[in-house]
Design brief:
Number of strands of chain A: 3
Strand content of chain A: 5-15%
CATH class of the largest domain in chain B: Mainly Alpha
Structural class of chain A: mainly alpha
Radius of gyration of chain B: 32 Å
CATH superfamily of the largest domain in chain B: MetI-like
Oligomer: heterodimer
Number of strands of chain B: 2
Number of helices of chain A: 19
Largest interface: A-B, 85 and 88 residues
Radius of gyration of chain A: 32 Å
Strand order of the largest sheet of chain B: 1-2
Strand order of the largest sheet of chain A: 2-1-3
Order of helices and strands of chain A: HEHHHHHEHHHEHHHHHHHHHH
CATH topology of the largest domain in chain A: MetI-like fold
CATH class of the largest domain in chain A: Mainly Alpha
CATH superfamily of the largest domain in chain A: MetI-like
CATH topology of the largest domain in chain B: MetI-like fold
Chain lengths: 434, 457
């Protein structure tokens, strides 16, 4: 029997180690668990973010419509019967609409009640009637059932984004309005359909009319110009720096510079754009042109760094072989090295463009934040881009904009996923191990 | 523009053909110094570059020249007694009238005449410009064609031009930095003439609302930027408190413990966080996280501002996790396996090896990565614009509303302000501060990372 409590001889190291082992293993397990927890937490963040936005946004792809029997009264629309398009365009469709809504609810006569009735349909409904009359003048004088876009609050209620159980004051929509909607729903006059307006309309103050077409067009023009500006410049700079530049202080400075530029806060580029491009060179504000200049300068270091890495991975034997059969240094580059490096360069360019696509801070500085309803048609029209549109909508107080914003984010994330997928596929398809 | 491209194409074609004929037919190409295509490029470049330079130069000075001509043609009595500003307005009216847009003042016959004159000159100038550019293009083309002889070293000349262009490309990056420094510095100097730098860097009251009229109370506004700096630091600190432990532990787990499959799935998924646009994070912080934090705080009996620093900081921390984790991952992987093996041989457990050997060895690189992340947090804009407040409170309470440098830059510059008011200039002074701070952080961080990388290579 060995006496454990009173060590007689000087303890051997193995005993000390054995005694502490349990503790050490526990610590090992704790450490390991903490690592796994950190990864899980990170993944949980990703999941929460996506789930939250998807849940908030998916309803925006549907839009509530209300069926109203519209009486296209010739006395209001075209009193003289000329069918002159200009008369038809200027007619008072709001009056037509109001008269038809009054007929739908003949029992309501008080002014406050009628106001609620009028608010059931969107403020864009008269325009809807107008375009209908303009394209089919023969509806004048008939009574036709028309599906009109529902008002923002009605839309929210029908989709269930607005809780009916809330007290009336917090809800933004009155009990009597809800009763009206329920009455319409019983008659089968309320319907949800795919929201095409979201993809074809410009922005609007009314959430139910707001769409992302303008922002998408602005993004398209801006990104095309950004690519045109930054890709050739970036590749040219990369080829020079990687292949031809002498190793001296000057090129060292350029290199440090490029690495720094990649880490400069994007808002500083916005200040540069405001002070240099707009105030000094007089480039028009709010246009894709000035946006692309700023974003181009921002993506330039990304493309240069990626291109240099791609050029570096082309083995020197390729260059030596080309030079050996008599190609000039530039021919070597353009005929042999660049084509081999192209997949890597393209991947870098796509990633740079994805960054430019999500960027909004510098664009706020150069006026791409203006409220622009029209869809831009060129590089010098005032425009906004998708991320800035998201920012503007997120700031709007109307409840309907929450789902619109989330839906716009979903569209933006969709584009980003596509671009990154393209980059990954490109890399997989053309990746070569030398 | 298209015409110019057409001329260049013509020049290429002609140059190539001439080279072949001058060599004595297609069979004798070997007597040429360069491939025929290079003679074509040479001619095309001669046609294009001088013409483009001329075009740029002309566009640069045309407006000034035409305006000067119109000004000198204005009747003397209209000009007499006008200040420079009024003259500028008048000329603006003339230009607007000429382009057919709305004019502010009344249209007198003289102004109408001047506008007609202006429009006429402009048309003339446009025609002259295109004629000149075309002449330059064709001149260059003919000149280059004239030089086309078998012994001309066309390839070398073309290549030196291409080299020069590529060199200019690489200069753009330097010019950008220079442009940033100059533009921000210039406006900041103007600002510091109005507001003393000591007041700006040491003042504790920030309220840039300058009054409309100079005789109102508090007309000057207060530009003490200390609350902005502390607000920025508070939010960055919260962000780093989230990002550093999670990012570092995730990097350690993924590089040391995780099985291959887990690593190949989890790493790209984590990196998604870096690719999400910041405006999305801002939306999430403002509309989802802030109400949650507020509700939790109120249930605990705490007073939480609806735009608390905590919400913005937490979300910013999540955004930065992948920066910390992927940079640390790189440096941890760069630690030589021999060092780990040595530690295991002495009987250390894996976690002891990591804590006592790997982390200390990788520490400079990790610190560099964290510094880069800090610079990122300080310069981050959209999250704080959307989720942090506007009121400049000097507080360290994460539940209160604070504002940051970037938020103030955005708010100062997105309103309709005159460009030289102290308010807009203050944004540039803030921008200068931001740029310098992040620059220093980046330079140090990049230096450390680079040096560290060389150490184990």
């Amino acid at each position: 029997m060995q006496d454990q409590t009173q060590p007689t001889t000087p303890r051997r190291t193995i005993d000390i180690v054995n005694a502490s082992l349990k503790k050490r293993y526990a610590r090992e397990r704790r450490f390991r668990f903490m690592g796994a927890a950190a990864v899980t937490l990170g993944l949980l963040f990703v999941a929460t973010l996506f789930a939250d936005i998807a849940l908030k946004g998916y309803t925006a792809f549907e839009q509530t419509y209300i069926q109203v029997p519209v009486d296209f009264d010739p006395a209001i629309i075209d009193p003289e019967g000329t069918r002159d398009p200009r008369t038809l365009a200027d007619a008072d469709y709001l009056a037509v609409l109001k008269a038809s809504l009054r007929k739908l609810f003949p029992d309501l006569t008080e002014r406050s009640q009628l106001r609620e009735v009028y608010a059931l349909v969107s403020a864009g409904a008269p325009q809807q009637l107008q375009s209908m009359v303009l394209s089919h003048p023969n509806v004048i004088g008939t009574a036709t059932d028309v599906w009109l876009i529902a008002g923002g609050d009605v839309d929210m209620l029908v989709k269930g984004n607005l809780d009916r159980r809330l007290p009336e004051a917090d809800r933004g929509i009155t009990d009597s309005s809800i009763a009206l909607i329920d009455r319409l729903a019983e008659q089968g006059r309320v319907e949800k359909r795919f929201n095409t307006g979201f993809f074809t309309n410009g922005t609007s103050r009314e959430p139910e009319l707001a769409g992302i077409a303008g922002a998408l067009a602005g993004t398209f023009y801006t990104l095309v110009l950004t690519l045109i500006l930054s890709f050739p410049l970036g590749v040219g700079a990369a080829v020079y720096l990687q292949e031809f530049a002498p190793k001296n202080r000057w090129t060292d400075l350029i290199e440090v510079n490029i690495n720094n530029l990649a880490a400069v806060p994007s808002i500083v580029f916005g200040l540069l754009g405001l002070a240099v491009f707009i105030n000094f060179f007089g480039v028009p504000r709010s246009t894709p042109l000035v946006g692309a200049l700023v974003l181009g300068l921002m993506t330039l270091p990304v493309i240069i760094i990626a291109s240099r890495a791609a050029l570096q991975s082309v083995p020197p034997s390729i260059r030596e072989a080309a030079l050996g059969v008599g190609a000039s240094p530039l021919q070597t580059q353009f005929h042999h090295v660049l084509p081999l490096a192209m997949p890597g360069i393209m991947t870098g360019a796509i990633i740079g463009m994805a960054r430019a696509l999500g960027e909004s801070a510098p664009l706020l500085m150069i006026g791409m934040i203006a409220f622009i309803v029209d869809v831009p048609k060129g590089f010098t029209d005032a425009a906004t881009v998708l991320p800035v549109q998201i920012y503007l909508w997120a700031d709007s107080p109307e409840r309907g904009f929450v789902e619109r914003t989330s839906a716009a984010i979903l569209v933006l994330l969709g584009f980003l996923v596509l671009m990154n997928l393209a980059a990954v596929l490109l890399r997989r398809r053309f990746e070569r191990r030398w | 523009m298209l015409v110019l491209l057409a001329v260049m194409a013509l020049a290429y074609h002609g140059g190539r053909k001439r080279a072949i004929t001058s060599a004595g037919g297609a069979g004798q190409i070997s007597t040429l110094h360069s491939l025929p295509g290079y003679y074509g490029f040479y001619a095309a470049l001669w046609a294009g570059i001088p013409a483009l330079l001329l075009l740029g130069l002309w566009l640069g000075i045309q407006d000034a020249v035409v305006t000067g001509l119109v000004k000198s043609a204005l009747p003397a009595q209209t000009l007499s007694g006008l200040s420079d500003g009024a003259l500028g307005l008048l000329l603006n009216d003339v230009k607007n009238l000429a382009s057919g847009s709305i004019v502010g003042g009344t249209v007198t016959p003289e102004i109408q005449a001047a506008a007609d004159h202006f429009a006429q000159l402009q048309r003339l100038a446009n025609w002259a410009m295109w004629l000149l550019v075309l002449a330059a293009a064709s001149g260059g083309m003919v000149l280059a064609w004239g030089q086309t002889k078998p012994r001309m070293r066309a390839r070398n000349r073309v290549e030196s031009i291409v080299m020069g262009t590529m060199f200019l490309c690489s200069l753009i990056a330097v010019l950008t930095t220079l442009g940033i420094i100059l533009s921000v510095l210039f406006e900041s100097l103007q600002f510091f003439q109005k507001i003393h730098p000591a007041d700006f860097f040491l003042g504790t009251l920030w309220s840039p609302q300058t009054a409309m009229r100079t005789d109102q109370v508090a007309a000057a506004g207060a530009f003490g930027a200390v609350p902005l700096f502390t607000g920025t630091l508070l939010i960055s600190f919260i962000a780093m408190a989230v990002a550093v432990p999670i990012g570092l532990m995730a990097a350690i787990y993924l590089s040391e413990y995780a099985p291959r499959q887990v690593r190949s799935v989890a790493k790209p998924l984590l990196e998604i966080l870096a690719g999400i646009p910041t405006v999305v994070y801002g939306f999430f912080a403002a509309l989802t996280l802030a109400p949650v934090i507020r509700a939790i705080g109120e249930s605990l009996g705490l007073e939480v501002a609806s735009e608390s620093a905590l919400a913005a900081g937490l979300v910013m921390g999540v955004m930065i996790i992948p920066f910390v984790s992927s940079l640390s991952d790189d440096v941890i992987n760069a630690v030589p396996q021999a060092m780990r093996d040595g530690s295991y041989a002495l009987g250390a457990t894996q976690s002891e090896t990591i804590r006592r050997v790997v982390i200390p060895a990788a520490l400079p690189g990790i610190v560099g990565g964290i510094l880069l992340a800090v610079s990122r947090a300080i310069g981050e804009t959209m999250i704080v614009v959307m989720a942090a407040g506007l009121s400049a409170n000097l507080t360290a309470n994460p539940l209160a509303s604070v504002t940051t440098v970037t938020v103030q830059i955005v708010t100062l510059l997105t309103g309709d302000q005159e460009f030289d008011s102290a308010k807009t200039l203050a944004a540039f002074a803030l921008g200068l501060t931001l740029f310098l701070v992040t620059l220093v952080l980046n330079v140090i961080a990049l230096h450390i990372v680079r040096k560290y990388r060389e150490q184990y290579e």
